[in-house]
Input
Amino acid sequence: MYVEGRDESMLAESADFVRFYCRTRPSVLDSARRMCGHDHHLAEEVTQQAFFEIYRSWAVRQFRPDEYNRRYVVRIMANKLADHYRDTRRLAPWENDSAPSWIDPEPNEPMPEYRLLRQLIDEQPPRRRAVVVLYFLEDFDYQEIARTLRMEASTVRTHVQRARAALLPYAEQLRQAMKEGRA
Output
């Protein structure tokens, strides 16, 4: 049944959501891939679930800024991913503080900054990886991460400190590579 005015507003609402989706999906999917350790299928799945959730409340959320809604989608995606790991019991222990296992590059091989960071992030246990992505790449604060991942803020701080400590030995190597123009 056609109701004049109602269908036009629904179409406009849907068009707004499509624009929001097209603008924000790449960055949300990128964060999901990093949190999943580059498991592309899982990243696609949790990203789609997150966008479906925001779509269900789009009538209310459409008036908020895109960045606010994008961060909301990232929080939903992180929750969906945490739920997935809880359901499949794939969460690694928090105590895994071993150094990254990548091999040092040859002296003349290019060593871009993103390669070091991506490898460091990928080798972290899933929960720490999620904290690292949300803190360093998404600019969430400790409290936002704690609420999103349902953990204590002190635990979030610990994960951030451990990630910084893991990166510290490679900082000088990275500085030297950048100085020599290899990064």
Remarks:
- Residues 1-90 form one domain.
- The chain has two domains: 1-90, 95-183.
- The radius of gyration is 20 Å.
